[in-house]
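User: Show me a protein chain along with its predicted structure.
Assistant: Here is one chain, sequence first, then structure tokens.
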Amino acid sequence: MRDTRESRLLLVLLIAIAFALITVDIRGGEDSPVDGARQAAATVFGPIENGVSGAVDPIGNAVSAVRESGDRHDRLAELERENTALKAELGSDDRNRSRLKQLDELLKISGRGQYGIKGAQVIAIGAAQGFSWTITIDAGADDGIERDMTVLNHDGLVGRVTTVGPDTATVLLATDPDFTVGTRMEAADELGFASGQGDRPLRVELLNGKAEIKKGDRLVTFGSQADKPFVPGVPVGVVSRVDPSGGGLTRTLSVTPFVSFSKLDVVGVVVQAPEKDPRDTVLPKKPKPTPTPTVTVTVTPSASADGPNQQEQ
């Protein structure tokens, strides 16, 4: 239709008629005189509306899916929480199994040495107590723990008790520079004193400057008077280096401790000393050396090219 004066008047007239019909329809309610026309329009345009609705439904479905995804997200989060809790439980079981194994080995050591021990767990390390190499255990005076008692684990000497509370105690580790313990060499019986050097091997001064010591030799605690602070026979470590004698009165050794001080968990406090010195019985069995395979090479002489069987011409 061309945009003329007549077309604009016709458009205004149609708009006026439309408003008039809407007014009549609203006032008429269910008895509206245009109800029949509306039903006819619905019959004609219904299929078109269905098509348009079908085109719009995916958008509506997507909105609905987003709304429902909130519920699914909550369920997924719940499943993830349950999975995390299960993993934590399994991890706890693994840790408990590790502790049971440590405790079992600790009981074996105490049995071989005839030590009466009180088991405890490490609950803090020395950073909270200053610059000393110490740990805190969950056993104290109420458990029979006293100052200057020997502390060991399934590998050997851990340290000695320095401070005791009702439910906890502080243990000075063998690696602390202020720690000193009397030692005895396995079999050789050479005596000395081991001192801590932090994260470095223990320093041992042997009283015999001419002692014949070699790398791989092992040491145990010599013991103290009245078994405090140290009971005898607790494994200390393995000689990792022997300094030259130099003609001095003492001889210096570097000793790698049996105990891994960065992995302390279950320990035992010796509350009752053995009736007699266990000597070397608490030391672990030495690993058997692996035999070095030998290869025998047999040289077979080669046959001579000019043999005796050559024919004469």
